[in-house]
């Protein structure tokens, strides 16, 4: 009897879970034929029932926990709702195969506009596969680059239904490097803690093999050096001569504060003020890692009121980083414009849904935050902006 | 407990009576059984000779603080491994409790405060939050243990499910109140001081308070494992659940409680995580269980079940952190880092298993 009762309870619980998710899905445009993990089903966004157009947009995200993309998602949901476009959000949990299954399912469920945040960044063939799956349905890729150094141009040019809206991946690195260089030139003697005329730096990389991380790691230093050389100062020097990579990477690929903290703590053992070889500057791929680095510095008595501030630079301009910059613990970051990105996607979606060719849709956007790429008419860049105190 | 000196004398007399062949085997077995420690010693000596700073008080202090941060989760998960199980939900549970603790203990004047009507952060409130997050961890553990024990499901599948569910809750939590998945920071000074405040300095590195808490946890866990009926039952169930049942052990409750205790430990691990890195993001805790499981296995808590010791777990955590610190100091490039870490875990487990097979 007890066993039967238990089985019954389990059945009730399962039914409740399915009904709970199913009720939401009724409104969503995609039929969830694929077996989704509970997390995704539970967090599935619902479409606006008051949709006024017959456009059914499906938005595919590579991952749900990404900090910057969460801001884009909030802004994009609001834009799409305001534009009266029915939409649903789907998350691929960092799995490209799963994303393609989701796209197929969405098309089967009647979606007629695909907005895709591709999982495998830097692979034009994958983008081509998605375009093939979509057929006549327009595909707006965004945020994660589908190719580097123009390798995506061919795919975008050949397929009139596809376009890309994102940031020029190297630009964040260039902007960060320039900001670092200018700051160091202006404050050289303060930054040069041991007064030897050379600034030693540490570099925190978010992930191996990620296009954005590679560019930021490269240009964050190269461009800073260019500014320094021009001003007649010595180039930055990586603090650890044995490390030929000249960076330390989050081994989980999570761009995490934890990795920044642990590396910095360990670096401090060998490289500190008492030994006269302290790290004098830290460049991070994102603000999360910068926060970890600052936590470590503060443990050691730096980057606080009245104490020496080791300049730390990040990218993203998260609310926390902005707060740290305002209180003087952090020096600078590069803002990725989440609202601008969302506005560009939504306006393009409206134009494309209205029958415009993707190139015309992009060219028709009038906003000084956006610029069509010089080498490809189907590619739109949303500008970055530096943020310092 | 056997007198170590007596034991040593016994070994020496035994050794003298052996013939040449046995003597040779004695040395080979000795080297293989202790290969991990011998290799670690060589590794430490090498690192110290290339990087003298590795062998300083400051370096030791840095190592200890990292061990203290990784230890609670390993102590918890070890119980699940003793029961021949595992726990994949550990990392996410600590991520969830880290987020809850951070939100409850934000600075009152922080601009991006998630909830405005949180009480003033006092010692009492911090303890309430600590109990709260430990309870959250324990509840997830209770669910794990219940499903494992009641339905004889493999813990792999049960904890995989709860890992997903917990991650879903984390994502939902980070979206609350217009937070939009942004990381949580701006932790109050009281919270930071209580967890990460300086206890004393070793070399030029401060030892934070959570090192003391880790020592207390070790003492408590040692007592639970070695001196209580519950601890003895745990080993009995891990060695042979049927036999344990026949001899009157309540297998159901033992399993449930081992998982609950583990969950409580993850809850505590999350409580210190936010202070350690200054902020908590939705990805906090990702893969943390992998390090904890690896540490246990390196330290001799075998997946075979029924074997393991608290000292072994501490040793395992130490070895993993030594690898991280030493390789970082040596400036090893990132691709080699993964390879070396993987190879060490594999060798450690193979050597551990060999010991077991020989015994059998």
Which keywords apply here?
heterodimer, A: 389 residues, alpha/beta, Rossmann fold, 2 domains, seven-stranded mixed beta sheet, 14 helices, B: 360 residues, mainly alpha, 73% helix
Regions with little confidence, pLDDT below 50 for 5+ residues of chain A:
22-51
Q: What fraction, in percent, of the residue positions of chain A are helical? A: 40-55%
% residues in beta strands of chain A: 5-15%
Helical run tally of chain B: 15
Report the average pLDDT across residues of chain A: 85
CATH class annotation of the largest domain in chain A: Alpha Beta
Give the strand order of the largest sheet of chain B, numbering strands 1, 2, ... along the chain: 1-2
Kindly report the oligomeric state of this protein: heterodimer
Question: How does this model look, in words?
Answer:
The complex is a heterodimer of chains A (389) and B (360). Chain A is of the alpha/beta class. In chain A, 46% of the residues lie in helices and 15% in strands. Chain A folds into 2 domains: 37-166 and 337-383, 3-Layer(aba) Sandwich (Rossmann fold), CATH 3.40.50.2300; 170-336, Response regulator (Rossmann fold, 3-Layer(aba) Sandwich). Chain A contains 14 helices and 14 strands. In chain A, the strands form 3 sheets. Chain A has a 7-stranded mixed beta sheet with strand order 2-1-3-4-5-13-12, with helices on both faces. In chain A, strands 6, 7, 8, 9 and 10 form a 5-stranded parallel beta sheet that branches. In chain A, strand 3, helix 5 (124-134) and strand 4 form a beta-alpha-beta unit. The N and C termini of chain A lie far apart (69 Å). Chain B is mostly helical and 360 residues long. Chain B has a domain at 55-284. Chain B is 73% helix and 2% strand. In chain B, a hairpin with a 2-residue loop joins strand 1 (198-202) and strand 2 (205-208). In chain B, helix 6 (123-151) runs antiparallel to helix 12. Chain B starts with a helix and ends with a helix. The mean pLDDT of chain B is 89. Classes of the chains: A alpha/beta (389), B mainly alpha (360). At the A-B interface, helix 2, helix 3, strand 8, helix 10 and helix 11 of A face helix 4, helix 7, strand 2, helix 12 and helix 14 of B.
